[in-house]
Every structure is written in structure tokens, then in C-alpha cells.
Amino acid sequence: MPASDLLARFAAAPEDAAAGASGARTLPANPEAEAAFLGAVLIDNKVLEELPFPLSAEHFFEPVHQRIYDRIITLADRNAVATPVTLKPYFDGDEGLKELGGTTYLAQLTADGQGLLATRELAQQIYDLALLRRLVGVGRELVETAFDTSADIEPLEKIAQAEAALYKVAEGEAGGTQATDFRSAALAALRMAEAAMASGGGLSGKTTGLATIDEKTAGLHSSDLVILAGRPGMGKTSLATNIAFNCAEEHLKHQREGGPFDYGGPVAFFSLEMSADQLATRILAEQAEISSENLRSGKITREEFQKLSFASQRLAELPLFIDDTPALTIAALRSRARRLKRRHGIGLVVVDYLQLLQGSGRANDNRVNEISEISRGLKTLAKELEVPVIALSQLSRAVEQREDKRPQLSDLRESGSIEQDADMVWFIYRADYYHEAGRPDFPTPDSSVEVQEKYRVWEEKYLELRNKATLIVAKQRHGSTGPVPLLFQAEITKFSSPSKRDYSSWGID
Predict the structure, then answer these.
(1) How many separate domains does the chain show?
(2) Residues 86 and 210 in one domain
(3) Could you report the per-residue pLDDT of 363-379, keeping only the tens digit for each?
(4) pLDDT in tens, 418-462
(5) Are residues 215 and 208 in contact, defined by beta-carbon separation less than 8 angstroms?
(6) Do 311 and 262 fall within a single domain?
(7) Are residues 171 and 207 in the same domain?
(8) What residues make up the domain containing 237?
(9) Which of 384-417 are b and which e, b meaning 16 or more Cβ less than 10 Å from the residue's Cβ?
(10) What's the whole-model pTM score?
């Protein structure tokens, strides 16, 4: 049977098909293009290596073509040649192929070889039509959902779900979420190890820009939820802005200089507490090394203003996007993050801070349940966008009531689910903050020896603790826990890493 006859079944005009179905529309598809592409692949298997994007069996419309392409990919993975002859044993009993003439259809696919003249164009059309079919499916689900007027239906939540579905289509997820075979997962692990080796410092994720943290965690990894918690005044926002700046700057550097691995990325910073201009002012002060207090009050010299101007020019191209919309719901935050991912390729999301987010409103005024919903939503966002998410969190006042002020996992405020959902939990702790609170009266010339000695001992300890901070890694799915030493310049709200020889003064080996 000639190839033209075998493919005639697929060549019916759309208007004829529509007329036969009482005016019903058919799904977007081009089985002839699929057949031509399969023929090209069977003639020359190297076609698969030249595709500009991965094409999977789910992208094909005809089930028979799906099975043929799936078997071709399987043979290619084994370094075996895929031809009509090598495919024949796998399709001798295929019922769908029998309708097209049996295994002779495999040979007919390669009869004219015209597909070799436009393999990329055929693959692109197959892929695009698959996306359109997925879009049709999403649209049908949207219509069905919109007609559901049950009392427990939340319209805004449905809109968020619709946007998530459309985002998946926009990202090319035509076949929906699929299980990952171990081979693919192992290759991803090897690429991560290669990146760590290439960095020279064990860095396999996005950099924090702080060597001691990167050394402990190997960086910020895709799909991870990192909780950064601390009591007020510890410097949570400062550390978050430092990391956001460092990650964005590393990406900018990679764009300019190139290299095999990008250890940074564009950053989305959701600031629910501070306005965008306040956050920008803080980042400018950090990078220009000018007191943020003096900057706000205008008490800066001409030289400092010039440093500020230079810093502003340097940061103008920084891929750091600040969203300061107050009272965001977790659904709205996820929608905004998806848009930023789609438009700017976001590589890191920072949320300041978790307790200022709102849930769906279905928690019946139960704050614990609402926080659980929010923490799960942030973890889902990290997996969906395949980026690390850093969420700042407040700690309970129980810390202040203990003699040892160092935070513990039990101090996470309002919900144990935060600890459960997080891949890493970091606590920021500054001993000098608490030591400062216990400052004794400054002695006068008339003060007793005891008063003077008390102040001397306090001052000596304060000078030892000053400008030192500790990041406590209390949970880490991928590695060990423990303290990480940091330097903190309070006047410019900037964290940095000490040299290893100075670790002993933190009490860290």
C-alpha cells in the first residue's frame, strides 16, 4: 500500500471533519507533519541531536506516532540505531498500527524522505500544536470551573489556579507533569557536582555572596525553601538584601564575562514591610558604605554623595525586582512570581516576611492553619518555578525569656509546619545586641571601684562581641547543621564573611 494511501486517513480537510461532527471543531494537529518527521528520524537518527528543544512522545497527536517516537527515543538512549527494521519486533502486535497496514507502515514513513528537508520546522510545528491542544484543555477546564457556583468556591483562588495552568503552558509543559526517570535525575546530580567542582569552593547552587554560608550550604538550590528567622533587630532584612544583591550582581557579572556556570540570577524581592524606595535606600547605603541613618537625614559629605552616585550608576542594571505591595495573599504572591519568572527569568525569590502574608481566608481565623497554608504555598512556589525561595520569619518571644538567647527550632512562631516545609532553617543571632541591652551605668570619677570594674568588664566583652554575628543552620536537608560566622557592620547594615583564622573568636572550630 503506497504511503499516500496509508496517510490518507490523516489528510482529511478540517472542514470535512467538522461537517461530519455536526460543526464541532477538531483539536489542532498535523498527523502528516508527524509522519514526515518520524520518517526523517528513521532515515537519520542524528536529527534528534539537532533539535533546538526536547521533543517528547506526548507532543505527538496520533497515539501510534507517540508509541513509535517513544521507542525511537528508547533505542537512541541505548546507543542503538532506530530504523524500520529494528523497530519491527516491537510493533508486530500493535493493534493501532494494524489499522495502517501493520509494520509495513514503518517502512512507508521513510519512502520519500521529504521530512529531511525541514526537520526543525516539522518539530517546531509538532511542538506548537501540542501547546495549543494543551491550551484548549486548560480553556475547557477554566470554563467548567467558572460555571461552578458552589458556596465553597473562591473566585480569586480559581483565578490563581488558572494563571498557574497557563504558566505551565507558557513554559512548554504540553504533556503535564511527568515522572523523572533515574537517568535524568542522575545527570542533573552530575551537573550539580560539576558546577561545584568548577566553582573551586564547593558551590553548586546560587551564591549568597558570603563565603562562609556558601561553604556550609553549597549555595541556594533550586526548589528549596529557606527560612531565615530571628528576633527584631538581629538583621534579617539586612542579610536578605545582602544575599539578593550578591546573587543579582553575580548574574550580571556572568552576563558580561561569560563562563560555563551562572552562580547568580535575577532576583524577585517581595517586601511586605518596607517600601521599594526604603529598600533601595538600604541597598545603596550598603554598597556605598554610607550610614543609612545619615543617608536618610541628609547628613552626608560631598565625598559620600559622590560614592552614593557611583553606587547608583553601578546598580542601575542590577536584575533585582522589588514588589512592595502590602497585605499580599500567598496566591497573589505566587501569581506575581510566575509573571516575573516568565518575563525576567527569576533565579531567586525573597519574601520579607512570612507572617505578613495572608492565606486564602478559609482557615476560620485559625492563624496556625493560615501560616501552614502560607509555608506550603511558598514551598510549592519553589518547586513550581524551580528556584530557591528565602522567606524571612519572626521568632516567638520565648527567646527573650531564656538566659541563652540563641534561637531554636521550637522558637519558630505560630506553626510547626514552617519547620516541616523548609529545606533549610537559618537563625541570625548577634550576641552584641543582647550584651548591649545589659550595659551598666557609665562610671564617673566619683564612682566606686566596683562600679568602674563592672563597666570595664562589660566593655571588654562588648568589644570582643562587636560586629560579630552567627548564622545558625538549624536544619538542612542536604548537609550538616551548625553555626556559621559572619561580620556585621551595623552602621551600614552589611554582612560579610570573616577569614578562617578568625573563627576561634566566634567559638567555632
Answers:
(1) 2
(2) no
(3) 556 777 788 888 888 99
(4) 878 889 999 998 888 887 777 877 888 877 888 888 888 888 888
(5) no
(6) yes
(7) no
(8) 202-429+467-506
(9) bbebbbbbbbbbeeebeeeeebebebebbbbbeb
(10) 0.64
